[in-house]
Design brief:
single chain, globular
Length: 175
């Protein structure tokens, strides 16, 4: 588990023609290639963007790699950018740092040396030109082959989702 602050790369959560709002249109998840290809990612995106969720995702990427030709182990990874919305009041950097710390504490309780999570608090360009912050979740899973790494990634994604939904309840209750 690694928690960092990324001041170099800004997230862009601004609404544009290429952005899909899964809160407004949950069916739009079917237009996300990665969500169709990896059903566990599609479920993750739908749950975090549910109407009652304080989270909104605005970017995701998935990739696989090996350490060389025929080398093992393989790695399967993803990056998911999310913001927290509390209505008119957007969380500040300290609140994102606290969210990352609390999420790290929940995820550190889970055993598993084949999984690694990096949490980055980054500046973000929000809708209507506002500046804010985002939480970038990087999940890496290693396996004896790409298939095993992908299965471990799916299980890790479920663990991250469970931790975020636990935190969502606390956020809704202002704790």
């Amino acid at each position: 588990m690694i928690v960092t602050r990324d001041t170099q790369e800004s997230c862009s959560a601004a609404v544009g023609p290429e952005r899909l709002d899964l809160k407004e249109d949950p069916g739009a998840v079917a237009r996300i290639d990665l969500a169709r290809q990896y059903p566990s990612l599609g479920g993750f995106l739908l749950n975090l963007n549910a109407e009652e969720s304080p989270f909104a995702t605005f970017g995701c990427k998935v990739w696989a790699s090996t350490e060389g030709a025929g080398a093992e182990p393989s790695e399967f990874a993803s990056r998911i950018d999310l913001i927290v919305s509390r209505g008119a009041e957007e969380p500040d950097e300290a609140q994102y740092d606290d969210l990352a710390r609390r999420l790290a504490e929940l995820l550190e309780r889970e055993p598993g040396d084949a999984l690694r999570v990096e949490l980055q608090v980054s500046p973000a360009q929000l809708a209507r030109g506002q500046q804010g912050f985002c939480l970038r979740l990087l999940l890496f899973a290693r396996g004896a082959g790409e298939k095993q790494a992908q299965v471990r990634w799916s299980l890790g994604l479920a663990r991250v989702q469970q931790a975020l939904l636990f935190l969502a309840r606390a956020i809704r209750q202002n704790r």
